[in-house]
Specification:
The complex is a heterotrimer.
Chain A (H helix, E strand, L loop, with lengths): L11 H9 L4 H13 L1 H10 L2 H15 L7 H6 L3 H25 L1 H10 L2 H11 L18 H29 L5 H6 L1 H14 L6 H23 L4 H9 L1 H20 L1 H7 L3
Helix pairs in contact in A: 6-7, 6-8, 6-9, 7-12, 8-9, 8-11, 8-12, 11-12, 11-14, 12-13
Chain B lengths: L9 H9 L3 H22 L3 H17 L10 H17 L5 H5 L10 H6 L6 H7 L3 H12 L4 H8 L3 H19 L1
Helix pairs in contact in B: 1-2, 2-3, 3-4, 7-10, 8-9, 8-10, 9-10
Chain C lengths: L1 E10 L2 E11 L2 E6 L6 H8 L7 E6 L7 H9 L1 E4 L11 H11 L5 H14 L15 H13 L5 E5 L7 H11 L4 E6 L2 H7 L2 E6 L2 E6 L1 H6 L5 E4 L8 E4 L5 E4 L7 E2 L4 H12 L2
Parallel strand pairs in C: 3-7, 3-8, 5-6, 6-7
Antiparallel strand pairs in C: 1-2, 1-4, 8-9, 10-12, 10-13, 11-12
Helix pairs in contact in C: 3-4, 3-5, 4-5
Classes of the chains: A mainly alpha, B mainly alpha, C alpha/beta.
């Protein structure tokens, strides 16, 4: 704090001159130095300045402060909060890490685990997109024109777009460092994953909770794989691959996926109403 | 919101700004924008630059209210930001080192500044008026605006050594005129 | 603006909304009733968030059960649900901007201007950049109200909008709502009805039991309210007033000091009828 306190105050005439740039450097310096510690004189200077100019300056500042988010509005309507992004990333990491660990620990059996879990990435994506906590606007969002299938689909796609590269990366990593992953196996999970995800999507148009459907579908898929392993009596990778990557499983997966997506689109209005009953 | 008897002090307003109170920022703006703009205008006549400097100053207030450490007047802190903003606008810095030294200067009132307060009709005023324009500019930059030697040199476009020598000449002349 | 005929919605074995018929024009219409009367369910149908099980509903002249018309209704609709579910990590400004995005307003500059407009209307300009979790309950309610008002909707559906507002703010709510739009609001608080509404529907157990102006509701109890220094056991209801006398509702005995009825009196009489 200043140790000086003077009773000298700049008078209005001096202030006016100062504002008009008519004062000498020395007087200006004197006034300026005084203004730094005298609120009263600052206020008086304020009364002598143009209010319109000040308000325009404020508008300019406010424009910088009141900044709408720069993200394109379509992205914002889909992923608006850190919570949504976090949940998606966590789910995806789990899907990626667990099979990796399994493959490291159990070799071929681990690869089976991988095959079981990889399709769940898209499933998780869709289930997450349906969660009530996914929308930061809560019930208000349900009355918005954008509500419904479009929003859910957008969110699922965005999460899946993160999940897929990770799943593929895990597979490639396992292939490179741990053991051979036949190419057909590496991608044999795509269509089944799509089918499972489409089923969860369809569940959202009914009264069933998509989360439960996701869990059920995942368990069903695990059982299917288990059944194939038992039928082949061993975990011989090539036979196993033939079974899963074969036309039977893949064909059924494609058909289920196509049917589920079509029915969902037909019933898309039901998505808008589902969450409030 | 409770209504106090006295209007809030600048420090209280700044504390509210730290809590993202837009109204507090507006109040600070109303109180300080006029004199800040006037003072910047004295050093740079271009109205566009003046408006930009004042705008950027208040943006710093909004984004980094914590950089006011509670010592000295808020007004002094504001001027410190404004003059450095002006400096960097007029003479864009090139070295990273200069950038690092940016916001760490406090504006503490010096003895010279204390004297300048009521200078108009005093002997010191008369003495100052007799200084040459170059010496006066250096005094203004270092004493009044609180710039460091390096910063003053950048603003005036002269070497640091020249700033130092002119400062000592100014001091010598002032002392002679007063004694 | 809202035309409902025999609207019904059943949950399990309960008829939450039981053959409700109502017809409104512009103005503020109040839906008054106790908790569980079905007000929220009815409002959800009016906000196109819930589909009726049977009956006809037309909002702004359009049919909400048809998808393209529903989208059009939603473009001109503002909804304040009972639990707004505001995201605590957003600021009021973010929240309003997000709702504007959901309402398909793609112009960033327009959104900025509109956000300022609605936040100023609910007097939250000073705190618009504070996180919602740091605001009081009344402020949060005003944020939700601002979100409902984005885009100046023709139809406003508000579920207990005065919740958490003090009398001063409620007065301001009145001027906020007095636009040319249709406002359908619910409340279980009688004083809000007299303060805010031009028309009132009283709802008990899913059915509408009264339609009219607030004055008409009070008028139901004309000649049925009297005051005495002592309690009268024959009265339907009686209670001690702040002036020390007893106020009675029912059939006044001869010579009783009959007084002018208030809105509470009319409502209580109606409620009593429902439970006998």
């Amino acid at each position: 704090m200043s140790t000086h306190h003077t009773t000298w105050h700049a008078d209005d005439g001096d202030l006016g001159d100062y504002l008009a740039g008519r004062t000498t450097t020395v007087l200006a310096a004197s006034i300026e130095s005084h203004l730094v510690s005298c609120a009263a004189c600052r206020a008086r200077l304020g009364t002598l300045t143009d209010v319109v100019e000040r308000d325009q300056a404020w508008d300019r500042l406010a424009d910088a402060i009141d900044r709408p988010s720069r993200a394109p509005w379509i992205v914002r309507s889909a992923i608006a909060t850190p919570v949504m992004v976090q949940a998606a990333v966590v789910a995806v990491l789990l899907v990626g890490l667990v099979p990796l660990l399994a493959a490291t620990a159990w070799g071929d059996r681990g690869l089976v685990t991988l095959l079981v879990l990889a399709p769940l990435a898209p499933v998780a994506a869709v289930a997450l997109a349906y969660r009530d906590t996914s929308d930061p606007s809560g019930e208000m969002g349900l009355a918005a024109p954008v509500a419904g299938l479009r929003l859910v689909a957008l969110r699922a796609l965005l999460v899946a777009a993160v999940a897929l590269p990770i799943a593929v990366g895990v597979l490639l990593g396992v292939d490179r460092w741990i053991g051979d992953v036949p190419v057909r196996l590496a991608f044999a999970w795509c269509l089944p994953g799509l089918a499972l995800a489409a089923l969860v999507l369809l569940a959202g148009t009914t009264r069933l909770d998509p989360t439960y459907v996701a869990v059920a579908a995942s368990t069903g898929w695990a059982f299917l794989i288990g059944a194939i392993v038992v039928a082949e009596r061993s975990v011989r990778l090539d036979l196993f691959t033939d079974a899963v990557a074969g036309p039977a499983v893949q064909g059924v997966a494609l058909a289920v996926a196509a049917a589920a997506v079509t029915i969902t689109v037909v019933r898309r209005d039901a998505v808008a109403y589902r969450r409030t009953t | 919101m409770t209504v106090d008897q006295d209007p809030p002090s600048d420090r209280e307003l700044l504390a509210e700004v730290a809590r993202r109170d837009r109204g507090a920022l507006h109040e600070l703006f109303v109180r300080h924008q006029p004199w800040l703009a006037a003072r910047v205008r004295q050093r740079c006549p271009d109205p566009a630059i003046v408006a930009e400097v004042v705008n950027d100053t208040f943006l710093v207030v909004w984004d980094k209210p914590g950089s006011y450490h509670g010592d000295g007047e808020v007004a002094a802190w504001l001027w410190g930001i404004a003059i450095r903003t002006l400096l960097h606008r007029l003479r864009p810095r090139k070295s990273v080192l200069e950038r690092l030294g940016q916001l760490r200067h406090e504006h503490a009132p010096s003895a010279e500044e204390a004297v300048l307060l009521s200078v108009e009709h005093s002997d010191v005023g008369l003495a100052l008026r007799r200084l040459s324009p170059e010496l006066l500019a250096v005094v203004q930059a270092t004493v009044l605006d609180g710039l460091s030697t390096r910063e003053a040199a950048a603003l005036l476009g002269i070497p640091s050594g020249t700033v130092k020598s002119r400062m000592s000449r100014a001091r010598a002349e002032l002392r002679e005129a007063l004694l | 603006m809202i035309e409902a005929t025999d609207l019904t919605k059943t949950f399990g074995r309960t008829r939450a909304v039981d053959e409700v018929t109502l017809s409104t024009g512009p103005g503020v219409i109040g839906l008054l009733g106790p908790n569980g009367a079905g007000k929220t369910t009815l409002l959800r149908m009016a906000a196109t968030v819930l589909a009726p099980d049977s009956g006809e509903l037309r909002l702004l002249g359009l049919d909400p059960t048809r998808a393209p018309e529903r989208v059009e209704i939603r473009r001109r609709l503002g909804y304040l649900p009972q639990s707004p579910g505001l995201y605590p990590g957003f600021t009021p400004y973010d929240m309003v901007d997000y709702v504007a995005v959901l309402k398909e307003h793609t112009d960033r500059a327009w959104r900025q201007q509109e956000a300022r407009r609605v936040l100023e209307a609910v007097e939250l300009s000073d705190v618009m950049h504070k996180k919602i979790r740091s605001l009081s309950g009344g402020m949060k309610q005003r944020v939700a109200l601002a979100c409902a008002m984005v885009g100046d909707p023709d139809l406003l559906v508000l579920d207990e909008p005065a919740n958490g507002l003090d009398p001063d703010q409620r007065l301001r709510l009145r001027s906020l709502l007095s636009t040319s739009a249709t406002v359908l609001m619910s409340t279980h608080n009688i004083s809000e009805v007299s303060a805010l509404c031009q028309r009132v529907y009283v709802m008990f157990d899913g059915r509408i039991t009264f339609t009219g102006s607030p004055a008409d509701l009070a008028g139901l109890a004309v000649g049925r309210v009297w005051e005495d220094e002592r309690q009268d056991p024959d009265a339907i209801r009686s209670w001690l007033t702040s002036t020390g006398t007893y106020r009675h509702l029912g059939h006044p005995p001869n010579g009783a000091q009959v007084v002018d009825p208030t809105l509470d009196d009319g409502y209580l009489l109606l409620a009593r009828k429902e439970h006998t």
